Amino acid sequence: MDEYILIFRHEDGKKIASPEQMQKWMKQTMDWIGGITAQNKFSGGNGLPFEDAKVVGYNGVVTNGPFGDIKETIGGYIIIKADSTDEAVEFAKGSPVLQGEGNTVEVRKIAKRDGVH
Fold first, then answer.
1. Maximum CA pair distance of the chain?
2. E strands along 49-95, which residues?
3. Amino acid 4: pLDDT
4. Exposure of 28 by Cβ count < 10 A (0-12 exposed, 13-18 middle, 19+ buried)?
5. Nearest CA among 68, 66, 81, 79 for reference residue 106
6. For residues 36 and 90, what is the distance between their CA atoms, to the nearest angstrom?
């Protein structure tokens, strides 16, 4: 069994949901993760807030950000265990993040520590 990272991308970081909508999405997300956990396939994850964020670029140039005015933002990630990329994709399809128009969940296999896929 391999590990996969599911990266939650939001198309428009300027849109701010109401506290009620955020609470609804959080419950849906926790229920979704609970379903993955019940199958013993959840490894971990976190949200990625914008506060205290920096971007380090070429030649060590540091800027504040990322900010919501960029086209796409990363809102968080989880790491799951799956028998195949297809199984990981099926988990990703259930993500409440996909309720937002233009939002995506990127599915990437995590390289094993010994460098072998």
1. 45
2. 54-56, 62-64, 73-82
3. 96
4. middle
5. 79
6. 11
CA distances in angstroms from 105 to 20, 63, 88, 92, listed in the order given: 23, 26, 11, 6
Kindly report whether the peptide bond that precedes residue 96 is cis, defined as omega within 30 degrees of 0.
Answer: no
Q: Are 46 and 79 in contact (CB under 8 A)?
A: no
Structural domains of the chain sorted by starting position, each given as residue range(s) with its CATH number in brackets: 2-109 (3.30.70.1060)
For 62, residues 6+ apart whose C-beta sits below 8 A from its C-beta are 54, 55, 56
pLDDT tens digits, 23-48: 888 899 999 999 999 999 999 998 88
Pair of tokens at residue 80: 């799951």
